[in-house]
Write a structure and sequence with these properties.
Blueprint (H helix, E strand, L loop, with lengths): L1 H4 L13 H9 L2 H15 L35 H23 L8 H12 L6 H30 L5 H4 L1
Length: 168
Amino acid sequence: MQYLLGLEKFTEKPVFVPELFVLVRKRLDHDFFNMLTLMLAETDGSKPKKEHTDEDGNDHGGTMKIDATCSDAEVRYPTDSNLLEDGSRLIDRLLDKFCARHKVKKPQTHRAEARQAFIGLIKKKRKGKKLIDKTKVIQIRCLQADLPRKRTTHTQRIRREPSASEMR
């Protein structure tokens, strides 16, 4: 934002007061926004669309005013079990790519067990502390069981040190 305004350097001080945009929107009338929309459409090269009204006279094809103060609240909050599930899924995907690239058989993992515990948690309407803790313990145990074995198994197969008899 500060770059677009032409400031010479970054400052942590806010450039605008957040309420300023709401005040500007309230002071400008509906006709000004329509004129601005038409001007933007002309510079874009597109023609404004005809208004669509239904039998009741309701307009369903107009412009929508979007305000930053009215945003969706569909934010996914990261919980420990969600982060562990994402990590488990990512590790499994990376392991698949690694095994495919190096033509190595994929070792057995505990992904299904960790996923089953996670699904059991998220399907519950009331998640108790015991269930949450139990799910986290299962997921961590599965990740700990998979990581060291995957690391040693694949690195030994790919970068195997030659034995003393092979060096002769």
